[in-house]
């Protein structure tokens, strides 16, 4: 069993390094939620997310609010409204999103748990579309969990040049307490590799109701310029 765990850890590490080395076609800011490959039967949820990205050229602030739920034992659908602050400091609707999460295998059945994500986004005032697809992978090592997201993104429309992008996110989490789980997070894209600490908490109410919170502070390590991101998320499941 120990040999198998060591083999799995080495395989996952090699997988991470391979994906990080193929980020030449990605751009934009990739700091956001790290998705887990699980779907709870009959789950319903509301979610709010905030990302503040600070560079030498200013601050980009984006917020996302939405909700959804499971449509069967292995799939869940959610919809979001995304708002951003523009160069004049005004905050308004930027885009709409719909996403499908698919738990591919039963939890604990294989050496790692696998899921998939499919997402479609439409810009509010521009003829720009973005489709995302990718894998969600999670492996437990004792009281720690390694979660990886690997995404392929395609953008098209009259107001943008058609292009492919890739994104990669990693979260290594220590399950110290249900209400407090520190982590290290890594995000990669073209000209962007960021790393920093994160924190996750879960408070359970009666039945299936629970409140999950996440926070992370990510610093760019691929360039010398000032580039920091702060992310915060609240998710209520019932």
Please give a handful of descriptors for the protein shown:
238 residues; mainly beta; Porin; 12-stranded antiparallel barrel; 1 helix
Write a concise synopsis of the structure shown.
The protein is mostly beta strands. It has one helix at residues 2-20; strands spanning 44-55, 58-70, 75-85, 91-103, 113-123, 129-141, 144-156, 163-174, 181-189, 192-204, 210-220, 227-237. 8% of the residues lie in helices and 60% in strands.
Your description of this structure?
Helix content is 8%, strand content 60%. With 238 residues, the protein is mostly beta strands. It has one domain (2-237): Porin. A hairpin with a 5-residue loop joins β5 and β6.
Structural class: mainly beta
**Proportion of residues in helical segments:** under 10%
What is the H-and-E element order?
HEEEEEEEEEEEE
Number of domains: 1
CATH class: Mainly Beta
Can you count the helices?
Answer: 1
**Spans where pLDDT lies below 50 across 5 or more residues:** 1-7, 17-27
Measured on Cα atoms, how large is the radius of gyration?
18 Å
Total number of β-strand segments? 12
Q: Give the spatial strand order of the biggest sheet.
A: 1-2-3-4-5-6-7-8-9-10-11-12
Q: What is the straight-line distance between the termini? A: 37 Å
Predict the CATH topology. Answer: Porin
Which sheet architecture does the biggest sheet show?
A: 12 strands, antiparallel, barrel
Strand content: over 45%
């Amino acid at each position: 069993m120990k040999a198998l765990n060591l083999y799995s850890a080495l395989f996952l590490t090699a997988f991470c390094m391979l994906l990080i080395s193929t980020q030449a076609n990605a751009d934009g800011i990739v700091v956001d939620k790290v998705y887990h490959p699980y779907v709870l039967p009959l789950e319903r949820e509301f979610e709010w997310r905030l990302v503040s990205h600070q560079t030498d050229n200013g601050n980009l602030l984006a917020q996302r609010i939405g909700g959804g739920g499971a449509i069967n034992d292995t799939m869940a659908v959610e919809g979001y409204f995304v708002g951003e602050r523009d160069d004049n400091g005004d905050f308004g609707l930027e885009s709409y999103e719909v996403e499908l999460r698919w738990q591919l295998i039963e939890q604990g059945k294989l050496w790692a748990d696998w899921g998939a994500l499919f997402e479609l986004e439409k810009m509010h005032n521009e003829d720009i579309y973005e489709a995302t697809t990718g894998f969600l992978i999670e492996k437990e090592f004792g009281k720690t969990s390694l979660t990886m997201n690997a995404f392929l993104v395609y953008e098209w429309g009259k107001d943008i040049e058609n292009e492919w992008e890739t994104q990669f996110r990693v979260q290594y989490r220590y399950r110290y307490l249900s209400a407090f789980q520190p982590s290290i997070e890594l995000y990669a894209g073209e000209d962007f590799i960021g790393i920093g600490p994160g924190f996750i908490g879960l408070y359970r109410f009666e039945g299936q109701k629970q409140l999950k919170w996440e926070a992370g502070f990510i610093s760019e390590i691929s360039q010398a310029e000032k580039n920091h991101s702060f992310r915060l998320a609240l998710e209520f499941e019932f």
